[in-house]
Amino acid sequence: xxxxxxxxxxxxxxxxxxxxxxxxxxxxxxxxxxxxxxxxxxxxxxxxxxxxxxxxxxxxxxxxxxxxxxxxxxxxxxxxxxxxxxxxxxxxxxxxxxxxxxxxxxxxxxxxxxxxxxxxxxxxxxxxxxxxxxxxxxxxxxxxxxxxxxxxxxxxxxxxxxxxxxxxxxxxxxxxxxxxxxxxxxxxxxxxxxxxxxxxxxxxxxxxxxxxxxxxxxxxxxxxxxxxxxxxxx
Length: 234
Ligand code: NAD
Ligand code: APR
Fold this sequence. Notes:
Elements: E1 5-13, H1 32-35, H2 38-41, H3 44-49, H4 51-67, H5 72-79, E2 85-90, H6 96-100, E3 105-107, E4 110-117, E5 123-125, E6 143-147, H7 157-166, E7 167-173, E8 194-198, E9 210-212, H8 216-233
Parallel strand pairs: 1-2, 1-7, 2-3, 7-8, 8-9
Antiparallel strand pairs: 4-5, 4-6
């Protein structure tokens, strides 16, 4: 059993933390999975059936993510690094946490800024650039988005679980906690940790978490001020 580290904070974020940066969530009323059938654009079946449709879906998302700016919630989370060891475990594939200044970010569903050979698995940075059909990795394999699709295995799960178990404070923000196994990470948090979840809507708030029912830019900055004050007063 890892001992609790009062100086360690884990942030677990989902699409909702980037909503106020103008990036759509998935299951809200204007969410991506209301506009697209996820099995067509975010699954190995979709890639096999029409790779050019999947490529175009992620090229558009990559361009929009590159044009978006970090919001006050991303910036407040980065601010925590002044006084805490902060690990951001995110389901998001944008790089807004990094661009706000967070230095330890674990992407469990992949990253838009990277591509990989569909057969070689060779990963390469593409930044904001579109991936073209016919574009190949160094071993000649067609490049695909380096995103975890439905049915594929999540990245960095065990490493993330260990971070949760050790954290003295856990903030869950902007996720419906409806996709597994990523959502199961919240259960790795210690019963003794200070646990907060921020979202305007939640079907089932995780047990043991204080639910701040509101938007990320409204709820996260004051929470960060409180946590920074607590640690300076201790
Ligand atoms: P899963 O069961 O984890 O995800 C399926 C989930 O998608 C369902 O539980 C439900 O929450 C949601 N879902 C079902 N129908 C939907 C619909 N019509 N529109 C939107 N959402 C819908 O998926 P799986 O097939 O069991 O695969 C699990 C793996 O896939 C996990 O590793 C997970 O991290 C990964 N994954 C990736 C993405 C992605 O878009 N990159 C999305 C979900 C899951
Ligand atoms: N501030 C905070 N939370 C918000 C905001 C906001 N401004 N707007 C929406 N939310 C909340 C919603 O209430 C919801 O609880 O963010 C959550 C978004 O949930 P989803 O759309 O399901 O997104 P997410 O939880 O990240 O999805 C998980 O599903 O399709 C896959 O791979 C995809 O990583 C994604 C995974």
